Amino acid sequence: MQLALDCLPCFINQVLRLSRSIGLAEDVTRDLMNQAWDLMKDSPMDVTPPEVARQVYMLVYETSGLDNPLLDLKREYTDLALSIYPDLKEHVRRSESPLAEAIKLAVAGNVIDFGQSSSFDLMKEIQTVLSATFPIFDVEPFQRAQEEADRILYIADNAGETVFDRILIEQLSKPVIYAVRSEPIQNDATIADAEYAGIDTSAHIISSGANTPGAVLELCNDEFLDLYHGNNMVISKGQGNYEALSDETRPIFYLLKVKCDHFSKLVGVPEGSYVVQLKQ
Amino acid sequence: MQLALDCLPCFINQVLRLSRSIGLAEDVTRDLMNQAWDLMKDSPMDVTPPEVARQVYMLVYETSGLDNPLLDLKREYTDLALSIYPDLKEHVRRSESPLAEAIKLAVAGNVIDFGQSSSFDLMKEIQTVLSATFPIFDVEPFQRAQEEADRILYIADNAGETVFDRILIEQLSKPVIYAVRSEPIQNDATIADAEYAGIDTSAHIISSGANTPGAVLELCNDEFLDLYHGNNMVISKGQGNYEALSDETRPIFYLLKVKCDHFSKLVGVPEGSYVVQLKQ
């Protein structure tokens, strides 16, 4: 998926919120917003949004001297998710369709996205997701794909969401490789964040090699690409990974919440929708 | 109220939506977004948002050669509102508190705001507003103020919303002067738009003299200012007029929907709230 004009003011908004959240002065924040616009104003449009997002976030990281400014927030969200993990496990265990319910929970976890929202109510969102109608819910193909695959490459998104991924992983029938960002970017999970969520108890964690908030294949390492091109099922979490991979032709299961108007038009479902979509 | 950093990406978004809605090419739209950012990037912050909005919108007007690009949309919204006017009148007539109900309807009309929303469902919004709890609802002071006033200066906002204003005006007990923008800006009402909504049947329509999407007093004409400073009740519709007038000390009744996060923090109520507030 290519960059759209809609992405530009959204990225400026993200710079504003990130700068304020780490306590930068308003004049510094304004200067960062101006720098971000300068960076984007002549950007080619045939790049993916995560590639531009990376550059924009790096401006804030360099100015603040912080290379993982959302670490505390990531830990806080993960702690919160871990605190309800036993209840969520019990919910899945009692469900008539544990796999479908775990898939829905993994989508619910995608609400934890500092980049798009400044506040949220986790438990409320979980209930909303579990009772929502998913306009696209490719669960039977999901079930077949895991039966046919050797392994499952699970491309992660945000820290905290990781705990919900863990619940889904524990329902899967094949070995899972959990691929995270190579470096901190936005609130996306790194290896340390995934371990903190306990993913290592049920999956093998790797770095995708990409430091962008979306698995841009040109940036991914050989280990990731071998798995990606092998006889494995691929699960992709969140809008950023969709944006990076949507022009690919191999089968991919996208689990996400639709978080902006432009993206909703591309997917063909209303903004705010929850989606489990097989694309190939 | 002063310009905030939050306003800048919002204005860029408005340029994007306006440009697309009048059919400008994507490269022209992008150039306009860049021009808008250039215009804002060194702007002093001690101006009101409507003053900057005016400059930003003028970029699109000048490039497109259109000086009233939303005329068709304004007419469409007004026609839609006029089509339900008899039902709304009947609703007010049957109400136990006709004045309070008409005030709520005037607030409901404030949802018609092309600047902030790309789509809306008018009838649904009306029902939502009528059944909503207003966190600020200064109706008794409103009643007292109109009893004590010689006349009522009603500062209008958007076309279409005008029809809802007309319903409130028809419940008021003093002569009403309905003040609109001096020139087309955004979807705000001009004299022609107000006449099209039938306001002239129940109020005297004047131009405020200001061509900004908010009654910036420095730009208003003597006729408006004489009324504003006289022994009259002042009713201000919408966020733009609040932004222009909020530092004033004379009593003003603000009727509006809270349409952005920054504004919601200033007013101290959640985004999306409906407000009838006396400030003085």
Topology overview:
Two copies of one chain form a homodimer.
Chain A: H1 7-21, H2 26-41, H3 49-64, H4 71-94, H5 98-108, H6 122-131, E1 136-137, H7 139-148, E2 151-155, H8 161-169, E3 176-180, H9 191-196, E4 204-207, H10 222-229, E5 232-237, H11 238-245, E6 252-257, H12 261-267, E7 274-279
Helix pairs in contact in A: 1-2, 1-3, 2-3, 4-5, 4-8, 5-6, 5-8
Termini separation of chain A comes to: 14 Å
CATH superfamily of the largest domain in chain A: Uncharacterised protein PF01937, DUF89, domain 3
- How many DSSP E strands of chain A? 7
| Oligomeric form | homodimer
Helix content of chain A: 40-55%
What class would the helix/strand composition of chain A place it in?
alpha/beta
Rg of chain A (C-alpha, Å): 18 Å
Strand count, sense and barrel status of the largest sheet of chain A are: 7 strands, mixed
Proportion of beta-strand residues of chain A: 5-15%
Spans of at least 5 consecutive residues with low confidence of chain A: 114-119
Q: What's the number of structural domains of chain A?
A: 2
Shape of chain A: globular
Which second-level CATH architecture of the largest domain in chain A applies? Answer: 3-Layer(aba) Sandwich
The most extensive interface between chains reads:
A-B, 17 and 17 residues
Instruction: Enumerate how many helices of chain A there are, as a single number.
Output: 12
Structure description:
2 copies of one chain form a homodimer. Chain A is of the alpha/beta class. Chain A folds into 2 domains: 7-64; 73-279, 3-Layer(aba) Sandwich (Rossmann fold). The first copy, chain A, has helices at residues 7-21, 26-41, 49-64, 71-94, 98-108, 122-131, 139-148, 161-169, 191-196, 222-229, 238-245, 261-267, and strands spanning 136-137, 151-155, 176-180, 204-207, 232-237, 252-257, 274-279. A 7-stranded mixed beta sheet of chain A has the order 1-7-6-5-2-3-4, with helices on both faces. In chain A, helix 1 (7-21) packs parallel to helix 3. Chain A is globular. The A-B interface holds A 5-6, 8-10, 12-13, 16, 26, 29-30, 33-34, 37, 41, 118, 261 and B 5-6, 8-10, 12-13, 16, 26, 29-30, 33-34, 37, 41, 118, 261.
